[in-house]
Every structure is written in structure tokens, then in C-alpha cells.
Amino acid sequence: MTPQNGYPADRLRARMSAGAPVLAAGCHDALSARLATEAGFEAIHLSGALVSAVTFGLPDLGYVGASDMLDALGRVTSGTDLPIIADADTGYGDPLQVAATVRRYERAGAAALHLEDQVMPKRCGHMEGTRLAPLEDAVGRLRAAAETRERLVLIARTDALRTAGRDEAMRRIAAYAAAGADAVFVEGAIDAATVAEARDASGGLPVLVNFSAAGKAPEPVADLARAGCRIAIFPVAAALAGAAAMRDAYRSILATGAAPEPPLGWDEFTTVLGLPTLSANEDRWKAVPAQPDSPEKEPA
Q: What confidence score (pLDDT) does residue 70 get?
């Protein structure tokens, strides 16, 4: 059955074709998804690095598996109906496992996933020690994903720019486009010239740019858009701000023995959670409708 607002993947495809890049907010649970939706974002990004941080308290060194991502995806979908672009790392195996991952992500409500060309266990593309899978292996994963998905937007990511150079990155992007990718993602591509080169190497596919806090800031979105950027993800920006606020609050409590004045009031917080609507529904559903008067019985 078609969802009320249409399939998330179809909505994301339509938005990608609109010209200006869709900005995707990094979220990891229902609350962050609600806040991003309220702020006006048009898409959500679910990062494996963020899931590793909030679930295990560990950096992005391959600790997160498909089940961990699916659990997080379930929490995010409960907080928003926006299209969700989910990190699928290497697909968590060889082509057979990649195909299963695609089916599971799509059933769980993802609109898109990005699949990268590292070996397993992978690590964050901004860390030292990143290793590329052989091109034929990476292409096999992409082919399995492309032939398995139904509507899912398939984004092919390469980490070759930093580890093997520009020429190898573009060679891989061309191969991934030929394998069935819908969009391409060159990790580390933060300037319009590289984005345009990726667009051309892929035969004109949309390009995703990562506005990661781990590296240099990309050029302005408007410049990247003219070069072919159609998705801009902000995977950890809000989480870093939230972590800093939590740390400051904990330190303040220990230092003063009192809770600091919250920048977000409790009433506003519960409003974000939907309390007014839920309370109104509760009252409406619990209300007892008036009973019609019983007809008087005729005397015997």
C-alpha cells in the first residue's frame, strides 16, 4: 500500500531533481528527527559514525553492524516522515549480504542509502588507515544493491580521493555509475571543481557532498549546486552541539549543586514531542458520547 505522503524514495528523487541541493540533517533518534523536522529540513541523514558514538560510545572503527543501523533507523522513522538517507557502510558483507542489507533498509523505511568501497572492518574516511576494497569487489556490491532495491535511491561512495588520488576516485565513480548507482559521493570532495568532475565522471548523476565536522569546510552550497551537488549532508553538526551542551550541564550541576537554567523550557520540549495533540486526542477518545433517550415502554 502506498504511504499517505508517497514513498520516501520517490519524494527524495523528486526533490533532487528540483535544482537546489536538499539539505539533510544528521539525526540518530526520534527526538533529533522531530527537532530537525520542526526546524524545516527536507531530509534526514543517519550516520554510522553517529550511531557508533551514541550507541556504544565508540569512534567509527567498524563497531556498528546492520542490526545496529536498523535499530537506529527504526527510532528515527518514529520521529519524522521526512526521507531518510542512511549510511550502509560497506553493506556489511559480500554481494549476498549487501542485497539483504538493501532489502532490510528499504523495509525499515529508508529513502536512500550510501554504500562505500572500503574493506571490512571499515573506518571513518577522515581517519588514518582507510583501505580500499578492490574495484571489482566494490562494483559487485553496487550491482547487488542496484538489482535488489525496489525504489531505494542508491548512492555510491568512494574513499579513494584521500587514499589513492583524484584519478582513481573518478575511475571508481564511473564504474559505480555503470553498475547502477543513482547518485555519487566522493568523500573529501568539498570544492566545486571536484564536484563537477565527479558529476562528469558519473555521466551526470547527482553528487552528494559531506559537510562533515571532521575535515575542512566545503565551499558554499550555492557554488557546489552549480557544479552538480544535489544533496548536502550535515551528519554530526547537531550532535556535537548537543554533546557540548550536555557536558556543560553536567559540569554545572557538579559545580553548583543545582540544575542550570535550560535554554529549552519543559513546556516547549513536550510540545516538540507532540503533547498538546496527544492530550487532545486522549480527551476526545475518552469522552463518553451522549446516549439517546430510551423509548418509553407501552403499558402491558
A: 97
